[in-house]
Amino acid sequence: MKRNNLVKMTVAAVAAVATIAPMAACGSTGSADGKTTLTMFTWDNDEAMKPYIEAFEKKYPNIKVDQSSAPNNGDKDSILNQRLSGGQAPDVFTLGYAGDDSKVTGGYTMDITNEPFVEKMSDANKAYESKDGKVYGVSVTSWESGIVYNKDLLKKVGADGIPSTWDEFLALCKKLKDAGITPFLEHIDETPHLVAACVGGKFAKEGNTDGDLSIINGKTTFTKEYTDCLDQWYQLYDQGLESRDSVGVSGDQIVQQFNAGELAMFITGAWDFTKLNEGGQHWKMGLVPTFDGGEANYGAGSPSPGYAIYSKTKHADAAKKWLEFMISKEALDLQAKAGNIVTVKGYTQDVDPGYTDVYKNGLQASKYYLPVNDWGPKKNAINTEWTAQFQLLVQGQQTPKQTAENMDAKLKSLS
Q: Residues of the signal sequence (predicted)?
């Protein structure tokens, strides 16, 4: 499963338009053979969707799925929004975070709150596809990052895993450094996952279900909500436990260093498991340590986009059958086979042995958070500013509090 990178969304609109050109029909249609044609617009390509469509059409032989796709880039939503407003709406379409999606606020998405299959979603997935207490989509997979560690290197300093608290983690990093081992690395081209985990755990412990949305809406500030987490995270750099040169290191370079046996720990997700298994090191992934003031076992992560129904579709029954099918065991097994991590109530799957702890105690417990999901239409600008501010902080050019204050100033300028 690919990580939902905070905001990496730039591809030419012309290419995306070409991708969906074959889908000329408007909405759902009937055909001469009596079949219902269900039109669908997804972020996944034809090859990825083929197993699901074939299984669905086998189960419902009177429904034909006419699927088209757009690349997972910044044009996908604008193209779909043009179709919706231009009278060429598909019956079913991919829906990301419902809380700030114009397809929901614009009235294009059907309220499916009372559909029985909705109750199968995990709490996190349901919240992701909800707005103002109503559910608008079905999301069935998620991702969560954890801290990968080299068992052999940790063993050299008497450790057998990732400690449960942040202070203990810092102490482990110091032991590794004193032993001549590079303790930890992370790349700073987005909000660091450790910071996201800290803030998510803080919100959970305080009962703040709005998360960063409460900042965006002016109810609180980045300074109030982030400064403590930034202070704790910055100890890695302030104590010399992580190199300030991490601002110029990519995720791939970190994996390469780990696979060469030169790095004890780094934070990542399931998307790196193939490289890790090919690297030859004895590795495992642990949960992110609990930060002071936060709920235990919280990590950075997010539900994946799901499926929604056009509010004015002429074939609502067929569309609901698609959503119901996508949360059925048959479709979930296909998701698991494709390497995606399913987070549906009552469903379990075999995961890489190194991922078991995060899967059971993080993902299945809905203990993960990704700030960008709450940033709304301003997310591109906010993400760009956060990245710049984190790099300044890591380089020692400002304090954690100044970093948060600068983000408040940026948010104010976007109003």
A: 1-24
List CB contacts of 146: < 8 A, sequence separation 6 or more: 162, 267, 268, 269, 285, 286, 287, 288, 299, 355, 357, 358, 362
Q: What is the pLDDT of residue 33?
A: 67
Contact 37, 67 (CB under 8 A): no
Alpha carbon distance 137, 306 (integer Å): 6
At residue 8, does pLDDT exceed 60?
Answer: no
Q: What angle do CA 113, 119, 123 make, to 5 degrees?
A: 95
58 contacts: CB under 8 Å, gap ≥ 6: none
User: Distance between CA 222 and CA 232 in Å, rounded?
Assistant: 15
CB 41 within 8 A of CB 20: yes
Question: Amino acid identity of 115?
Answer: E
Sequence letter at residue 305 = P
CATH for the stretch 144-301+369-413: 3.40.190.10
Residues linked to residue 199 through DSSP beta bridges, in sequence order: none
Kindly list the domain boundaries of the chain, sorted by start residue.
13-141+304-343, 144-301+369-413
Which pLDDT tens digit goes with each residue over 269-322? 999 999 999 999 999 999 999 999 999 999 999 999 999 999 999 999 999 999
CA distance 400 to 233: 9
Lowest mean pLDDT across 18-22, 38-42, 106-110: 18-22
Which strand (E) or helix (H) includes residue 87?
none
Q: Which CATH number fits domain 13-141+304-343: 3.40.50.880, 3.20.20.140, 3.40.190.10, 3.10.50.30?
A: 3.40.190.10
Query: Beta-carbon neighbour count of residue 346 at 10 Å?
Result: 7
Predicted pLDDT of residue 331: 98
pLDDT more than 90, % of the chain: 80
Annotate 4-30 with b (16+ C-beta within 10 A) or e (fewer): bebbebebeeeebeebbeebeeebbbe
DSSP, collapsed to helix, strand or coil, labels residue 292 as coil
What's the pLDDT at 72? 57
Matching fold, domains 13-141+304-343 and 144-301+369-413: yes
